[in-house]
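Our platform keeps sequence and structure together, in a single record for each protein. Such a record has a labelled line for the sequence and another for the backbone structure tokens. The tokens are whole numbers drawn from a learned vocabulary of local backbone shapes. The remainder of this section carries one protein's record, kept here as part of the documentation:
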Amino acid sequence: MIGLKSTLNVLLTPEQCIDNSGALIVECVNVLKQKVNNGWGSVGDEIVCVVKSARPVSAAAQSSVTAVKVRRGDVRRAVIVRTKKAVRRPDGRMIRFDDNAAVLLNNKREMLGTRVGGIVSADLRMKGWGKIVSLAPKQSLTTSRKGFAGCAIETHGPGMRVS
């Protein structure tokens, strides 16, 4: 087991969990998709993650209907909604965020939480995660070249000059 753990250190990446499921920090241990990118995940990819830190739960809150759904050490599935690594759009723009973030899923590939707090990439809608985009307060820009807090847009492409 120790050898396996040491070989997985390349995949282990801490990510913020931006839904209200109760998890704060999750760590990616596997990317669930075709074996094209050798274990690298991008926006819209499904991952297996471990909850590294979660919101504390009081004894009174455990019996309520809106109890926290995850605990520290739980192994869950999630979808990546933001990445530090720049993603190229078809028009040549590169979109990157300040941090990595994910939203937890249940076994039916539905969101575990009921809210999304924070910016998500608009590319999620094209990859079949429209529910996450509709619940998010902001999406990354799709038509204008202006960036906002937490998102940078670079224009590298044919016919575009970098100044």
